[in-house]
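Re: Re: ligand-bound prediction request (bumping)

Still looking for help on this. To restate: I need the protein modeled with zinc ion bound, output as structure tokens. Inputs repeated here so nobody has to scroll up.
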Amino acid sequence: MKKTVHQIIWLSIPFALLLFIVCQSGEHTDEWFDNGLVYFCPNCRGDFYPDAVGECENCNGMTSSCAFKYCYDCAKELNVCQYCGVER
Ligand SMILES: [Zn+2]
Ligand SMILES: [Zn+2]
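Reply:
Sorry for the wait, this slipped through. Here it is.
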């Protein structure tokens, strides 16, 4: 019985390590994207589709895409994602 418990513990170590590595690699893409034109959270940094201009919810100014919630300046000031509005 004790042996089985030990085996389970030993078997679970690679899985725990794998989970740890996955979590670690997840943190690498946890960086915010800021190139001086757009300010994105890690979730939105992948999909940037410039299209028609939009309106900023904060200052009613122009955004570089109608998909954006905020203009670049407001996103930086509020420290939120320009695309989805999530707080940093
Ligand atoms: Zn604005
Ligand atoms: Zn976002």
